[in-house]
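Handout, section B. The chain below has 333 residues.
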Amino acid sequence: MKIAIIGAGFYGCYLAKKLSNNHEVHLFESKEKMCMAAIVNNQNRLHLGYHYPRSNETVLQIISSYNRFLEEFRDCVSFIPQNIYAVHKDSNVDFEHYSNFFNSYNLDHREVLKSDKIWDKIKNPKDFQGAFYTSEGILDTSKLRLKVIEPIYSSKNIKISCNHKVDDNEVNILRNKFDYVINCTYNDPYIGFESPPVKVKKEHCLIVVMKDSNYRDFGFAVMDGNFCSLYPIKGDIFSLSSVVHTPFNKNELSSFNVKENLEKIISDSEKYFLFKERKIVDYYFGTKTKIKNDLNDERETLVVKEGNLISVLIGKISTIFYSIDEVEKEIYK
């Protein structure tokens, strides 16, 4: 078969690599080169499901793909002993519910004791109902990018067209030229669809990258609500996000003050963390596409087909294999 894939990010490139084993694939990218903005401009957490106690489907999809992701990309993932999820006293989900949630999905965890040294890094330990050590991975996105993109250049069955933005009109042309057109653009998942199956929203995001010796190889997510998350990148460098200040809408974009908003994220995080150096070294700026009505914090991966047009909206990077299974079901029916 001849298959067109729109979007040469992580998902589009990996799908192209897989399908090129048996098919001729043409990859279209709107930017001047293949990129991975959706995964690079984000916290490099390899989700195992701990983050989503209110969305069963998200957790099930992640679990179904996680081991396969590790088998394929083990050299791009590292682990640390102090990777903690802490339940705040004002959490949407209480500590007992959270513990039951971990147990029901057999998510590896161990309760943090009140005497454990990790609380020395936390501003007000008494504000927490309790916490758990978990075993989520840390992604090396630079390694991951190389591992996915290199095979694209060496494959004889993959053609690449960069600086080529595909709009609704061209989708119809591609549908006549190819057996299947698969949209992996992430930020515009329903190009060419007459009836988009779900409403989505775009959310611009800002994440601080900091360096602080007090948080070497340390991860701490405050659950579950308008809180903050600190996640390691390498050594004493980590990313910092805030549910309140990391996202912002497009109306703010023209007058967006990066330094001012980085400061807001850090100030919000200082309700929980005891920074020593408080040194900003970088920041991530990107756009997320989410299901519009995500009241339960859904991050599901959706694969939808309309004729020979398939849309892949990825919720979490580790569900890439779930999405491939769903795409193959559609094209091999």
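Note. The chain has two domains: 1-44+141-197+301-332, 58-139+200-292. Compare this with the example in section A.
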